[in-house]
């Protein structure tokens, strides 16, 4: 399986998917077609966990702001991680600026929704 | 059109950050969001309020783009265009208005959601947002069906109305208030 990197645009984050066990999303997220945009990432993540995932997978999400369909997509992404968590060690860092209250709240919401996932709030 | 009249409106109604009336595309929305970021930066806006403005702006403008596209393809009077205004008054309150033409079918989808939001407090809105995001129901078109709840979470108040143009078409106006003194959550 190969690594996959998608460069950031004005309205989509940089996505970096590394078979050594690193998944990173950094930037803003308000694509016109959110589900189409993230499909290559979701496909990669599904294949990664189905083939030979690393002993530990670290997910770093640093999203400054995002539209509601991205919020739904991130939920689906966490749902996918939730499905494979019993067979894999996954740690998720939800990274935000100290002053960015809405990003902090979004992270808290995901922690509440996925209490069996290891999601940490990380202040930059 | 008299450009002086527009200038008067801008002066009377406080500082207008951004106003646009016309055809919307994703790249234009991104450029306007970038312009809003610059304005927010030069006005030393707090990051939280700035991000709430960007999110509401994006949500409303992408809605306008998508609702106009979604239905009545044969009816070319429903185009991906409308009016969107981001403004600020002297007390530092922010307002984001949007108005566009929608079909009756979309009105019938939007109105119950807005009526529900109107009946809830902030805690209730946040609860519904999470329920709807989890269930994935009411997803339609390109959004997740939670756009108005996202907007409602991020402002202090919203007002809306539908003005009938004819049997199948309505002006849809929504106004969001981001107030300097946040009400107690």
Approximate helicity band of chain B: 40-55%
* Strand-pairing-aware structural class of chain A: alpha/beta
Radius of gyration of chain B: 17 Å
Subunit arrangement of the protein: heterodimer
> Structural class of the secondary structure composition of chain B?
alpha+beta
Mean pLDDT across the residues of chain B is: 84
The dominant shape of chain A is: globular
* N-C termini distance of chain B: 44 Å
Count of extended strands of chain B: 5
What is the N-to-C order of secondary-structure elements of chain B (H for helix, E for strand)?
HEHHEEHHHEE
Notes on the structure:
The complex is a heterodimer of chains A (124) and B (185). With 124 residues, chain A is an alpha/beta fold. Helix content of chain A is 38%, strand content 33%. Chain A has a 6-stranded mixed β-sheet, covered by helices on one side. The relative contact order of chain A is 0.16. The mean pLDDT of chain A is 96. Chain B is α+β, with helices and mostly antiparallel strands and 185 residues long. Helix content of chain B is 48%, strand content 25%. Chain B contains 6 helices and 5 strands. Chain B has helices at residues 3-12, 26-42, 47-70, 104-119, 122-135, 147-154; strands at 15-23, 81-88, 94-103, 157-166, 169-178. Chain B has a 5-stranded antiparallel β-sheet, with helices on one face. In chain B, helix 2 runs antiparallel to helix 3 (47-70), helix 3 (47-70) packs antiparallel against helix 6 and helix 5 packs antiparallel against helix 6. Chain B is globular and about 45 Å long. The model of chain B has no long low-confidence stretch (mean pLDDT 84). The chains are: A alpha/beta (124), B alpha+beta (185). Chains A and B meet through strand 4, helix 2 and helix 3 of A and helix 2, helix 3, helix 5 and helix 6 of B.
């Amino acid at each position: 399986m190969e690594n996959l990197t998608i460069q950031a645009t004005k309205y989509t984050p940089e996505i970096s998917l590394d078979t050594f066990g690193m998944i990173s999303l950094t930037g803003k997220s308000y694509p016109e077609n959110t589900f189409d945009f993230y499909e290559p990432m979701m496909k990669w993540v599904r294949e990664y966990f189905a083939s030979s995932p690393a002993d530990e997978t670290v997910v770093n999400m640093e999203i400054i702001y995002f539209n509601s369909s991205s919020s739904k997509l991130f939920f689906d992404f966490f749902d996918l991680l939730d499905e494979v968590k019993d067979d894999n060690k996954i740690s998720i860092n939800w990274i935000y600026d100290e002053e960015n209250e809405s990003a902090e709240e979004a992270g808290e919401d995901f922690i509440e929704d996925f209490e069996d996932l290891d999601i940490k709030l990380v202040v930059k | 059109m008299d450009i002086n009249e527009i200038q008067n409106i801008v002066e009377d109604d406080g500082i207008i950050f951004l106003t646009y009336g016309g055809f919307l595309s994703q790249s234009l929305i991104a450029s306007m969001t970038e312009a809003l970021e610059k304005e927010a930066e030069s006005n030393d806006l707090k990051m939280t309020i700035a991000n709430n403005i960007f999110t509401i702006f994006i949500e409303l403008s992408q809605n306008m783009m998508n609702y106009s596209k979604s239905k009545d393809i044969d009816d070319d009077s429903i185009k991906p265009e409308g009016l969107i205004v981001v403004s600020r008054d002297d007390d530092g309150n922010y307002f984001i208005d949007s108005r566009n033409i929608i079909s009756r079918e979309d009105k019938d989808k939007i109105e119950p959601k807005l009526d529900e939001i109107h009946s809830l407090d902030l805690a209730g809105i946040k609860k519904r947002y999470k329920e709807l995001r989890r269930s994935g129901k009411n997803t339609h078109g390109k959004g997740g069906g939670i756009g108005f709840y996202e907007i409602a979470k991020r402002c202090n108040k919203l007002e809306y109305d539908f003005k009938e143009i004819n049997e199948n078409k309505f002006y849809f106006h929504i106004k969001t208030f981001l107030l300097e003194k946040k009400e107690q959550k």
